[in-house]
Design a protein that fits this description.
This protein is mainly α. The strands form 2 sheets. It has a two-stranded parallel sheet. A two-stranded antiparallel ribbon has the order 3-4. It folds into 2 domains: 103 residues, 3-Layer(aba) Sandwich (Rossmann fold); 52 residues. 50% of the residues lie in helices and 11% in strands. The longest helix has 30 residues.
């Protein structure tokens, strides 16, 4: 077993691809949805990578993929215990704009929520998304309503 730590955005994909090229048959992503996204992209972009088993130890803030595979709210120890006895199962992946996704894809507001949340460390879990992004959504809502009022006045309504 080898352990590698990511050092920068995109590094998880590089590490996963390197592991596939070295003959790895199982890769475990320890992190959240961003880590799973990167590792899955490293696997799926590499010849033979789709046949490598991907395991998850969920220690991120959202862990949506962990919910999909049934290890959400498990401690890291429990998630590892499940990996030892787990049966591999195939799951679908999509491809949009050159990026693979394994549980969902978002455009517009969703990615903006993640960007804002990631730029403001401190809180964790659901509260971090709610607190930080509710203020941002109010600002976006005000901008939209201002545009709407301006458009209405121009049309004379």
């Amino acid at each position: 077993m080898e352990v590698e730590c990511t050092e920068r955005p995109g590094h998880g994909a590089e590490l996963a691809a390197r592991a596939v090229q070295a003959g790895a048959q199982r890769i475990v992503a320890v992190g959240g949805d961003g880590t799973v996204h990167e590792v899955a992209n490293g696997l799926l972009r590499c010849p033979g990578g789709a046949d490598v088993a991907l395991g998850v130890v969920p220690i991120g803030s959202g862990n949506d993929f962990a919910k999909l595979v049934g290890v959400y709210r498990h401690s890291a120890v429990r998630a590892v215990q499940r990996l030892v006895t787990a049966q591999a199962a195939r799951f679908d992946a999509g491809l949009v704009c050159g990026e693979y996704f394994v549980n969902s894809v978002g455009f517009g507001f969703g990615p903006e929520v993640v960007r804002v949340r990631n730029s403001m460390p401190g809180l964790s879990g659901f509260a971090s998304y709610f607190v930080r992004c509710s203020a941002r959504s109010r600002a976006i809502g005000r901008a939209v309503s201002r545009c709407g009022r301006a458009d209405s006045r121009r049309r004379g309504t």
